Amino acid sequence: MPNILFDTPVPILFLTCLAQQVASQINGQRLSLSDVGKLRDDISTDEITPVPVLTHFDETLGRFPYTGLTLEGERPIEVDAIRHGGFKVVVAGRRYGKGSSREHSPMAERAAGVRLVIAESFERIYRQNADNIGLYTSTDMGLVQRIQRGEAVTVEELVADRDALSATIILAGGLLPFGQRYLAPDVLDMPESSPRSEGVGQTLFQKIVARQRLHPAGLAGPGMSSLPDGTPVGQGLFVRAHWRFIHEYYTGMAASLLKTHLDEKVRLVDAQQIVVFEDHTSYVEESPNHLRAGIVPNVVRMCEAQRAFVATHGLREHRTLTEAQAASDTGQNVAGISHAMMAEHYALPGQVVVGTDSHTPHSGALGCVAFGVGTTDMANAFVTGVVRLTMPGSIRVELSGRLAPGVTAKDVALHLLALPQIREGLGVGKVFEFCGESLRHLSVDERATLTNMVAELGGLTGLVAPDDRTVDFLLERRGVRFTVEPWMQSDPGAVYDAYLEVDCTALAPMVAAPGDPGNGSRIDHIRERPRVDIAYGGSCTAGKREDFDHYHEVLAWALEHGMRVPEHVSLLLQYGTTAVRDHCVSRGYEQTFRAMGARILQPSCGACANCGPGSSTDAAQVTVSTINRNFPGRSGPGQVWLASAPTVMASAVAGELVSFDELRARQDS
C-alpha cells in the first residue's frame, strides 16, 4: 500500500518577499499560491536557524525555525510561531537552504511539525540533510494546490524523481537505519578500480571517486547494486573517506543520533582517521550575540558533550584557545579553523575528505575531493567509514591571463559569484575545477580561497590538479615529500557540464554589497562609498599566511606614510591557525599590526560565525570583511561588505570603502 503523507488539507506557510504577508499567515490567514506573488529566493540556513540556535541539538530546535528570516528589514517569525501555527508544509523560491551545512535547519523544521518543504530548487547539502532525517522535499509546485484541495499525496510520488539511492534512503526512514542494514563493513565490497571505456576521458574528480567507490552488497534497485564505471550524473553512491572531521556545533548531535539508533553498540570505524575540532566558540565570552541570548552555558555544555565523545572513543582533537589560555600556552597547542587545519596537517592529493562544514572544499586546493556533509551523514560515516555522494556534474573554470598586482583570488571568487548564470544556480551541486595560466601562478593559499568559496558558488566541491606548487607547499608546511602521480589530472577528453572563462587581466578589486555574496561589483564602480565602522581580517577564507602577508603589506605602507586607523574604525585581525600566528610572529608582523591599532585575535572562526570580536552589535554599523558570507545576521545585525585582504585593510585606514590602489592614489595626489 502507498505511504500517504497527506490526504486532507493542512496549513501551508508561503515564505514570500513581504514581511506583512508572512506575518499575516503566522496570525492565522490562509493563502493560496496565486495570492502570494513572488516567493523569497536564497533563503539561507543562517536565516532558518541563526547561530544561537545551533547550541541546541534535540527537539528544542522545533521552537526556532525561520527566526532569522529577514524580509524588508523585519523578522516576522518569532520563537514557537511555526509549531503553534501547525504548519505542515512550507513553500519557497529558488536555492532554498543555501549557505552553511548545518543540519539544525531541517531538524528544526521537522521538530516544529513541518513534514514537507516545497521550493523551486534546493541547495545540495540542505536537501541531503533533509533526506537523512525524514523531512520530505519537492520541487513540484503543483503539489500546493493538490494539498489545499485535500488530495492524497504519497511518499512514493515524492521520491519518484529522485535518484535510486536517495529514494531508498528516504523510504528506509533515513540514513542511519539504511546504513546499519547496507553499509556495515562486513557487507561492503571494497574499492575497485574499474577499467575505463576506451576513448572516454575522466575529470580528476571522477578518477578520485572511482578509486574510492564502494558497493553496498545486497542493495537492490536500478543502477545501485552494480555501479558501472563512469557513474552518471545524479546517481547516488558511496565512497570511502580518508579523513572525517567534525566540530563542536555538530558532535553532540551526532553522539545523540548514534545513541538513539545504536544504543550502546557504537563502534567507530578507523577512528584514527577521525579528527575533532573545537574551533567556532573560543571567543563566546566576548560575543554580544551569545551573551544577550543567555546561551553561553549552552555553548559550554555543547563543548563538554564533544569532549566527552572524544574521550570515550579516543579521538584526535584540536582546540582553539581563549585569550587567557593562549597567554599561558607554551606554543605546543596546535589548533585552528577545522578545514584550514585539514589542509595544513592532513589532506593529501587524491584523497577523499569530508567534514561537517560547508567550507570543507578548502582542501581541494591540494587536489583532493573535499566536501561538506550534515550531522547524520557524519554520524553514519563514523560507524561505517563511508560517505554518501550523489554524482555531480563538473564546471571547468579557466583563469586566463595574469592577475594585476593588488588583485587576489578573493576578487576572482567575488567576480564568479556575481555572474548571472551563477546567481541563477548554474553551480548548485557541481564540481568546480579551476585551471588556466593565472591559476598556475597562484599559491596554494590563494587556490584555497577559490576552493573554499565554492560553497558560496553553490557547488559540491572545488579542486585544483596538484602540481609543483602543491609539492612545495606540502614539503614547506608539513615536511611531506609527495610525488604527483600521472593520473592526478583531468583527461583531455573529459566532459564538463559548463565552461567558464575569466580574463584575469581585466579583473579589478571587487566587493559584495550586504545581503548576499553574489552582490558583487568592481569597487571602482561604486560611487557612494560607505563609512566603515568595523574592518575584520580573518576566517577560513582569509586567515592564511598569504592573507596576513597582504594585511601587513597594506598596514606597513600606511604606517610608513604616517597614517593611522581612524578612531571610529575597529580593526581586528584573526589568525586562521596557530601556524599562521607563528608565521606572523616570526616575521615581526604583530608590531606593525599593533602600531596601526589592530586587535590581534587567536585562531577561531570568530566573527564569521557571529561569535566574538568583529561582529556588529547594531543594525546601523557597516563592516568590511574578508569572510565568505554576508547573509542577513551572519556576522551581527549590521551591514557587511565582503572584500579581499588588501581592500579590507585599505578601507580600515581610509575609514571608508576603498581599494589599496585608491588609497595610494589619494596619498600621491
UniProtKB/TrEMBL annotation:
A single Pfam family, by name? Aconitase
Where is the Aconitase/3-isopropylmalate dehydratase large subunit alpha/beta/alpha domain positioned along the sequence?
A: 331-655
Keywords of this protein's UniProt record, alphabetized? Iron, Iron-sulfur, Lyase, Metal-binding
Metal-binding listed as a keyword: yes
Q: Can you provide one Gene Ontology molecular function annotated for this UniProt record?
A: metal ion binding
Q: What biological-process terms (Gene Ontology) are attached?
A: L-amino acid biosynthetic process; proteinogenic amino acid biosynthetic process
Span of domain Aconitase A/isopropylmalate dehydratase small subunit swivel: 88-135
Give the quaternary structure: Heterodimer of LeuC and LeuD.
Q: What is this protein called?
A: 3-isopropylmalate dehydratase
Q: Which organism is it from?
A: Orrella marina
Q: What is the lineage of its organism?
A: Bacteria, Pseudomonadati, Pseudomonadota, Betaproteobacteria, Burkholderiales
